What does this fold into?
Amino acid sequence: MIRIRFVAALIIGMAIGTASALEPISPLPEKIDVDADKVALGKKLFMDPRLSANGTVSCHSCHTMEQWGADGRAVSIGINGQTGRRNSPTVFNAALNFRQFWDGRAANLEEQALMPILDPVEMGFQSLDEMAAAIASDPEYKESFTQVFDGEPNPRRIADALAEFQKTLITPDSAFDQYLRGDADALTERQKTGYELFKGYGCVSCHQGQLVGGNMFQKFGALKDIQLRSGGNIGDLGRYEITGNEWDKYVFKVPSLRLVSKTAPYFHDGSAATLQDAVDVMLEFQVSRDVPTEDRDAIIDFLGTLAGTHPLNNNQD
Amino acid sequence: MKLSTLVLTILLLGVLGALGLAFVHHQTRPIEEVYRTTVTDELVALHRLDKELNELVLRSRYGIDSDYDRISQIPSRIRRAMSTLLGGALRTDKIEGSNIETDLNSFRLALEAKLSAVENFKAHNAILRNSANYAPEASEALAGVARQTGDARLAEQLDRLTREILKFSVSSRTREDMQQVDELLNGIQGFVAGLPVEHRIKGLEFERHARALLKERPVTDQYVQAVLSSEVGLNLEAIQAGFHNYSLQREEQGSVFVAACVVYAGIMIMLLLFLALRVRMETDRS
It folds into this structure.
């Protein structure tokens, strides 16, 4: 009898495992292996406003731990109170993005880390060497860099340390990840329905993978011309401003939905104030489906299950 | 010639000869075994990644893979392998004057074009997949509405449209087939416009998805073709062959250095013997 139960449990476990392997979304990793000393240095740099030309803006200014790696604004405020053009995406789970920035112009976290430092609106340095000199003037930093890198602070090492810290900002173990791992009770029936609708209405064509997005580019207005949408910045042409290719007009990186319930407002320009607004736009312009309110609300309920453990609570650092 | 002058001359010739040998060695030294192994390993790795990318594009196109995580990791893995390659034995200063530089440039261009095609494929394939899933279902639902209104002819047209859309999703169609679907879609527009609002919305949705399918299928397949027919693989083979030939050439040149060493040693021995003779003569004289 015990043997039968064991075999049955094995078969059921394999079925669940196989089923989750066929799902278009997979769980986040529990953690990424990092160098603890480099992380500590990177964290200090991340919080340090001396990475801006006038010493007032740090990475943390626009990517706060309290607001799940974002800042809750439509667009961020940079040096000397200047307003940016695009919404600050969350840095949580950003290590898993296939590219960085809304237009994907940085290949990885190391490349991304230095660009805001040189942006005249964001952190305002004229050169990376100036920034590195500001950091190197601090004897504590010099000592830390010697310990970690066996050398002086320079732009490459600063970017490396910042990237290493951001690798710890993972939000594993969401209710949905628990469900994918076989815990059928991790979601309510409505949330499970919401997931099936998320797949059925085609949202998962772009919002898939472990980040539920974050691994491809897509045209904003894939099925309906986005210029027909009221509100929003149609002057921002997205990847076209990098590539010059006609098809790349209004193409942006598909954002991760992992923390979508925590990081309003939405889209590259922060033009959707609520998750309901954002989902309505997606349903109209991306998948072109007229969806009953109860289905939309079930999808929103499902999206809330994607948020995992806050990095400050997951013993990463 | 005074003895001291002779000694200084021999010393000077010795130093100049040694410097000359050092220069010849630098120009002709063979490529170190460790670098040759690294280059070979990285080129093999790049080949494998290139093939894996082709396979993953096909798996995504035909719905075997339902997410793009694996395919999205390939570009960064390729760039890491290239960085190792270009930072090692294929550094510009090490291959200067060889044909490898030209092959490397061709490879870089072909690679960037291929990776761009992959990104475009992912975007268009996502739209295609979504519309291919929904359009037949929507067409069938509209056919049901047509039957309810008693329009059997229209219902038959919509059934035909459903079949054509399904066929279009799974097999290659001619331009005439696409034209036919387009005409069928145009034919139902009047019907859709006359529907009650809840059905009209569904009708417009269906038309949008059907037209997306017509548009995105050839575009998506064009990017698949661009990926599969990319010359990245050929460029890698050219680099491999070029590097192999260059290594052989450097080994041959290495024998020039050996010959120069032998000549230098011979000359220095003769000069030192002559010096020894002179010292002996001076000693005998005194």
Q: What stands out?
A: The radius of gyration of chain B is 37 Å.
